[in-house]
Design a protein that fits this description.
metal ion binding; 43% helix; 169 residues; NuoE-like; Glutaredoxin; NADH dehydrogenase activity; binds FE2/S2 (inorganic) cluster; alpha+beta; single chain; 2 iron, 2 sulfur cluster binding; five-stranded mixed beta sheet
Length: 169
């Protein structure tokens, strides 16, 4: 995970309960670790460091094993994301259609490095690997919304629509 201006605060009790709920829901299924990590990230937006020993204990794994899986998959965040998450696909089909240029453009427009969260916490910029729109690349996801064939101009437009006035660049 890249630099972030926000230092995560200690996890609050309701968030710890959400981790405990995810553990209870998944601990007995075969290959529980990945679905469990997904459930934690779905609930909290990231996998907090406090969750690692809880998950390790529940699945009878070492903390290093859990941490290793979190760092191996780019998908999992170890820090809370910004209020808006912008994902730009860098997999093959999108690479061939200008994804790298699009990502560099997003960095400039947002004032935020890839894998990073802007200092004001407004936005996190993440390269991702396939959003399932390979035939209409390059693809971008902003929040829950997917966008196909995104040009740098269109990206600027989408970002302006997605960030509030106070957060816009
Ligand atoms: S390669 Fe980018 S959406 Fe699949």
């Amino acid at each position: 995970m890249g630099p972030s201006a926000m230092k995560p605060l200690p996890l609050k009790a309701p968030d710890l309960s959400k981790v405990a709920e995810a553990i209870a829901a998944h601990r007995d299924q075969p290959g529980a670790l990945l679905p469990l990590l997904h459930a934690v990230q779905d609930a909290l937006g990231y996998v907090p460091s406090e969750a690692v020993p809880m998950i390790a204990r529940a699945l009878d794994l070492s903390r290093a094993e859990v941490h290793g899986v979190i760092s191996y998959y780019h998908f999992f965040r170890s820090e809370p994301p910004g209020r808006q998450v912008v994902q730009i696909c860098r997999a093959e089909a999108c690479q061939a259609c200008g994804a790298e240029e699009l990502l560099a453009h997003a960095e400039r427009v947002l004032g935020c490095a890839r894998h990073g969260t802007r200092a004001d916490g407004a936005v996190t910029l993440e390269p991702v690997y396939c959003l399932g729109l390979c035939a209409s690349s390059p693809a971008v996801q902003i929040g829950a919304k997917l966008h196909a064939r995104v040009t740098p101009e269109r990206l600027e437009q989408l970002l302006a629509e997605s960030l509030t006035d106070a957060e816009a660049v």
